[in-house]
């Protein structure tokens, strides 16, 4: 299945022009909010979108929705696909289709505080991206290198991102 991405060149050019005109145009702020319900479930609001979040019964939930680490994997894969599309356009690499899958290993001893030497998040995440199209494997490896260097969600995992939390009371 060939997907039309011709509009991406225009987005890249318009963004480049806007940033060159004023570096402040490079900064974008994203926002989210969440509200708890049931034992461990929540509803997150992302602009006009609402998503449900839950845990499996083994972690106190009812498995009515994906859990936070599953959403992380989905975010990573979706961001990879977006980044592949934009960088294929930038590099002039033809891509007919992209699929991706991921799995991660999480040791619950970190989450539950059973062993402080074990991190609370994934110990490892494995991603497989399948690209189809007319290019050589070398060109697709070039594309992968660009994606690995520029994928925002992958960057969140590979690099330390400062997070500050303020607790409010009612």
From TrEMBL:
Listed InterPro entries: KH_dom-like_a/b, OsmC/Ohr_fam, OsmC/Ohr_hydroprdx_reductase, OsmC/Ohrsf
PANTHER family listed in its UniProt record: HYDROPEROXIDE REDUCTASE (PTHR35368:SF1)
Name the record gives this protein: Osmotically inducible protein OsmC
């Amino acid at each position: 299945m060939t997907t039309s991405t011709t509009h991406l060149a225009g987005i890249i050019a318009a963004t480049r022009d806007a940033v060159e005109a004023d570096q402040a145009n490079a900064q974008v702020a994203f926002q989210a909010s969440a509200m708890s319900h049931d034992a461990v479930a929540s509803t997150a609001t992302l602009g006009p979108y609402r998503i449900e979040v839950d845990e499996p019964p083994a972690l106190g939930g009812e498995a009515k929705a994906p859990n936070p680490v599953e959403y992380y994997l989905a975010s990573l894969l979706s961001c990879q696909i977006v980044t592949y599309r934009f960088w294929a356009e930038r590099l002039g690499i033809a891509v007919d289709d992209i699929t991706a899958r991921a799995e991660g290993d999480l040791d619950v001893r970190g989450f539950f505080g059973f062993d402080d030497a074990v991190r609370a998040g994934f110990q490892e995440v494995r991603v497989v991206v399948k690209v189809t199209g007319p290019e050589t494997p070398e060109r697709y490896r070039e594309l992968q290198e660009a994606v690995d260097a520029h994928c925002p969600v992958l960057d969140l995992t590979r690099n330390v991102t400062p997070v500050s939390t303020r607790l409010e009371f009612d």
